[in-house]
Amino acid sequence: MSDSPQWFDEEAGPVVRPYALIRGRTRSSGDGFDLVATVRAVGDSPGELGPEQQLILRAARSPISVADLAVELDLPVGVIRVLLGDMRDHGLISVTSPSAGGSRSNERILKEVINGLRAL
Amino acid sequence: MDSVLSDDPVALKILIAGGFGVGKTTLVGSISEIRPLRTEEVLSDRGIGVDDLDGVEAKTTTTVAMDFGRITIREGLVVYLFGTPGQERFWFMWDELSYGALGAVVIADTRRLTDCFPSVDYFEQRGTPFVVAVNCFDGADRHSVDDVRIALDLDEDVPVMLCDVRRRTSAKEVMITLVEHSLRTLTSAN
């Protein structure tokens, strides 16, 4: 066995570096998206989308969280947020903040969670 | 029991905190489908000075992998677990993680109790409900629980419990204790 590391295929990292996907930007209107905010595809997908945007639209046909999207696409959260910000600005997706529902202050939901955990 | 059906799924966040190697990853894995979440963060001012940036002055982002777990209670009601990055230079990430969080589990190891001081301080200051779970590494007993409560100078209402993070039933018990505690905090505030 050779001592020098040999990286092949996926181990060598993505062919396109994550930040090249978003043209080097680290900021977008998606900065504030919570990790557990809900993303949904809305409207029809235009033809000229990049592969990552298409994957996001496909994954978001049913509601999905920002964190789950990052895992699904195997991209850092920061990159996902930039992509999502652009996509929302173009009316392709909706993003719902979890705090908007005030879920923390909902007694009924917490009781449901307790029962659900017991049943696991 | 009727569930009010709503378009918006409810997503709840629970944070798993504690010192390095205390069992955060194991706890998340015991109770949920665990997946690594990659975050690439811009180093904050707080990170500068802690990170050794000699020779890499141009580096302004750092990759952080977080443990991320999901428990589906029912369709439209999901609990997300986030293992908080252990190093203090990632405090800035905690602010985001703890925003709107249902609560936190601080895992303690009686052999290195000081490791969990920063987590306890943090959640006390933020007013985030938390429980302290003493991981039984070396036969910790009931005595350990009392010692931990005194050593951490915890409020009476903060639950302290023994646990074995490798066991699903134990992990479940910790989660239930936390949500019950959050519920009590909530109802006493109203």
UniProtKB/TrEMBL annotation, chain A:
Origin superkingdom: Bacteria
Annotated Pfam families: DUF742
Protein name: Uncharacterized protein DUF742
Source species: Nonomuraea fuscirosea
From TrEMBL, chain B:
Pfam families: ATP_bind_1
InterPro entries documented for this protein: Gliding_Motility_GTPase, Gpn, P-loop_NTPase
Sorted UniProt keywords: GTP-binding, Hydrolase, Nucleotide-binding, Receptor
Domain of life per record: Bacteria
Keyword Nucleotide-binding: yes
UniProt feature coiled coil, ranges: none
GO molecular function: GTP binding; hydrolase activity
Family per record: Belongs to the GPN-loop GTPase family.
This protein's name: Signal recognition particle receptor subunit beta
Taxonomic lineage from the root: Bacteria, Bacillati, Actinomycetota, Actinomycetes, Streptosporangiales
